[in-house]
Inverse folding.
């Protein structure tokens, strides 16, 4: 026999999944929301997206290549995805310098300093968002008004988000119904016609992305659906108790970054739990904290903080919440 | 709703290309190389010497311990020598080399194909015949059948499960057997029921073998206590624990045996071999082997005498394809890659699978992205990514706590991992180390 046979341990068969396929599937799932952003925010959306993606990829390349001296890992698509998510999480009139700084924080600090893909505890794009929010509160909370700002970038006309208006109104002694009169209809907001971070405004488009990821089995329903359901139920109870003090649950589902957070940020593989039960507790935690911050906290929006807080307990979840094993354990000596 | 096991599992491409190929007998070779260790347990002891004349079915090595099995000559002729050659395990093992001369069977063997339905012997006699005839599990595990049939004290067998799942992709030998030896399978099942004193037997078959389900279901109406259970296609349903869960919805405890939940599982091939042993006095010296692969010219289901070198089986299927990269004994999920084609086939060789070059090499492994896919598909509810990390860090005790010994080595985790991680390699290593720890603890 002249031919050399390959000898390897089983299994000898593999499916076609790869890291890059999964990452690019997430990118595809983000396309509908990106399209809506382009429609409402025009060039601003385009500029910050390109800036964020390019800078994230470049930072990743430079760090792996020259600081870690390892083969560059940019081809797996994870850095590009992080960049895209940073853009989705900031207002579309943000100065490019801040966007680049955000990418640096996400890639260099949140991802690489923990050891790169697979080792970070906190979602890199969210770390960037919260870092920018705390460092530059004014720029990070002046949101372009949809449609009117289409052809503008840094000079966009700005206005508050729906959640911001709600918080301000309630603080100012107004009733919920008084605030609602000034807001667009729920249908308009669901489709994305409101002020907000670039990629968070259209619940409808984000849900299409969710559906795509579920069909492609990129993620399972556990985190997104449980998060949304938790917010809906708890907010629903508050609303039933006092409809003039608390907004209705549907309003809370379609405004702010909840959909974006529940569907794309909380589901990040690396920073979410490793089994179904853990995912459900994790998602309930995110939902509860979000509702608490939105209704009782100083900030109008709480989803980013909620996800980061729950990110920090994931290692503990992974240690103590185990998948259901097959067959009970018989103790030694029976 | 078809039954299946609830936890985990994967759907590898089925590739059952030889499903419609009727069983053909492979012509006798000039020489056979019969390994004396073809089963789990102690090797058999050789009782022939060079120059002895043997007949087909004559015992040439006798069981070397409680867990062991007799080995019989698969041909008639002269013992040429006692040798050591590589076998399917990849190690050098003792073999009996026999020069073939004619095809003279022992007179005691009934060579006819007449079906004998009446079971005239009692359970003790059944066990004796199975032991004598060297029957072992033909599904691949090769555990001696007579040992599996002895119910330990304080345990009671309530259900017999016949495994016709054949969940490994490509393999079709069990499928063909169910089609072509249906009646023998039924009688064999009744013999096993009698041996175990159970009233119920289920034959589990996956829904991709509709013809076999139909044929056996019709036959089953004539046999008391036998029921055919169609199952949803899902790998690794042929695993004993998964099959028991699917059919009678009971979970074998961790570290336990099927008998702990009253079940005994036998493969369809084994069951037919039991029929032949008890009703026809025929020892286990031949079996059905699927020779298959995407580039194989004529995929086949062959009836092959034990001890024929694998290369001769491949030649009968049109020869070794140009683009061969890997030759596997068994299926693609759990089979063993062979390092030589001269190894003799044995009782446990259910298939010879030839993989083309481009499907043979592993991809480089990349960091774990913690996608939880391996956890979702593990039929035993384990966390393969964690078992591997613990193994890399040599944390064997932690591995034991995480129930590494429950792993059935089905390979589902590796099949789905997008980072191409060598999960099962590390899990095997971990099982090995933990096994050592457990043995040391028993000694102290
Ligand atoms: S850990 Fe073991 S039992 Fe679980 S999927 Fe992997 S090989 Fe199969
Ligand atoms: S399937 Fe692979 S990449 Fe995903 S968690 Fe398991 S080991 Fe990690």
């Amino acid at each position: 026999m002249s031919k050399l046979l390959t000898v390897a341990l089983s299994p000898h068969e593999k499916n076609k999944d790869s890291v890059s396929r999964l990452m690019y599937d997430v990118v595809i799932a983000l396309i509908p929301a990106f399209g809506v952003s382009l429609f409402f925010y025009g060039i601003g959306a385009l500029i910050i997206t390109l800036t964020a993606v390019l800078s994230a990829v470049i930072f990743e390349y430079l760090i792996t290549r020259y600081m870690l001296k390892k083969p560059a890992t940019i081809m797996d698509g994870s850095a590009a995805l992080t960049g895209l998510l940073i853009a989705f999480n900031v207002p579309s009139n943000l100065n490019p310098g801040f966007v680049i700084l955000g990418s640096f924080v996400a890639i260099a600090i949140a991802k690489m300093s923990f050891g790169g893909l697979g080792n970070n505890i906190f979602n890199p794009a969210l770390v960037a968002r919260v870092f920018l929010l705390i460092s530059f509160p004014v720029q990070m909370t002046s949101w372009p008004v949809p449609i009117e700002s289409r052809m503008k970038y840094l000079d966009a006309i700005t206005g508050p988000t729906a959640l911001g208006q709600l918080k301000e109104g309630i603080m100012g002694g107004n009733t919920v119904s008084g605030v609602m009169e000034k807001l667009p209809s729920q249908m308009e907001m669901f489709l994305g016609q409101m002020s907000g971070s670039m990629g968070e405004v259209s619940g409808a488009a984000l849900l299409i992305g969710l559906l795509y990821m579920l069909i492609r089995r990129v993620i399972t329903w556990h985190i997104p659906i449980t998060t949304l359901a938790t917010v809906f139920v708890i907010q629903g109870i508050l609303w039933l108790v006092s409809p003039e003090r608390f907004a209705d649950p549907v309003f809370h589902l379609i405004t702010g970054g909840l959909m974006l957070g529940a569907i794309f940020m909380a589901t990040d593989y690396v920073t979410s739990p490793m089994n179904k039960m853990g995912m459900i507790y994790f998602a309930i935690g995110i939902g509860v904290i979000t509702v608490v911050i939105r209704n009782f906290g100083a900030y109008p929006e709480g989803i980013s903080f909620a996800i980061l807080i729950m990110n920090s307990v994931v290692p503990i979840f992974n240690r103590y919440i185990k998948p259901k094993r097959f067959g009970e354990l018989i103790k030694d000596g029976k | 709703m078809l039954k299946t096991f609830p936890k985990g599992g994967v759907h590898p491409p089925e590739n059952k290309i030889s499903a419609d190929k009727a069983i053909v007998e492979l012509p006798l070779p000039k020489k056979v190389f019969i390994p004396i260790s073809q089963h789990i347990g102690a090797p058999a002891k050789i009782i022939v010497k060079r120059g002895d004349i043997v007949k087909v079915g004559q015992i040439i090595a006798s069981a070397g311990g409680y867990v062991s099995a007799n080995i019989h000559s698969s041909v008639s002729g002269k013992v040429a020598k006692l040798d050591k050659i590589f076998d399917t395990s990849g190690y050098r093992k003792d073999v009996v080399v026999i020069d073939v001369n004619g095809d003279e069977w022992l007179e005691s063997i009934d060579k006819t194909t007449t079906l004998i339905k009446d079971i005239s012997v009692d359970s003790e006699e059944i066990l004796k015949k199975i032991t004598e005839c060297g029957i072992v599990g033909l599904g691949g595990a090769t555990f001696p059948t007579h040992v599996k049939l002895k119910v330990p004290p304080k345990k009671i067998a309530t259900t017999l499960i016949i495994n016709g799942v054949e969940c490994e992709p490509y393999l079709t030998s069990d499928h063909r057997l169910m089609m072509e030896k249906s009646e023998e399978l039924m009688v064999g099942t009744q013999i096993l029921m009698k041996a175990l004193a159970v009233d119920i037997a289920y034959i589990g078959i996956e829904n991709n073998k509709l013809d076999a389900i139909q044929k056996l279901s019709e036959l089953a109406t004539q046999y008391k206590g036998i029921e055919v259970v169609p199952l949803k296609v899902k790998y690794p349903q042929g695993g004993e624990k998964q099959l028991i869960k699917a059919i009678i919805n009971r979970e074998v405890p961790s570290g336990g045996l099927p008998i702990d939940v009253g079940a005994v599982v036998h493969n369809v091939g084994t069951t037919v071999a039991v029929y032949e042993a008890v009703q026809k006095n025929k020892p286990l010296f031949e079996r059905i082997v699927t020779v298959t692969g995407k580039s194989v010219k004529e995929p086949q289901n062959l009836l092959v005498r034990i001890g024929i070198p694998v290369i001769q089986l491949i030649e009968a299927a049109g020869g070794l394809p140009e683009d061969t990269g890997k030759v596997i004994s068994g299926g693609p999920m759990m089979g063993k890659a062979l390092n030589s084609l001269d190894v003799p086939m044995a009782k446990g060789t259910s298939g010879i699978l030839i993989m083309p070059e481009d499907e043979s090499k592993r991809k480089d492994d990349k960091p774990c992205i913690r996608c939880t896919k391996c956890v979702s598909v593990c039929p035993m509810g384990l966390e393969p990514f964690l078992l591997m990390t613990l193994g890399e860090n040599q944390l064997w005790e932690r591995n034991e706590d995480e129930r590494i010994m429950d792993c059935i080595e089905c390979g589902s985790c590796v099949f789905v991992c997008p980072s191409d991680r060598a999960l099962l390699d590390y899990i095997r290593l971990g099982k090995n180390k933990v096994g050592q720890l457990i043995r040391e603890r028993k000694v102290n």
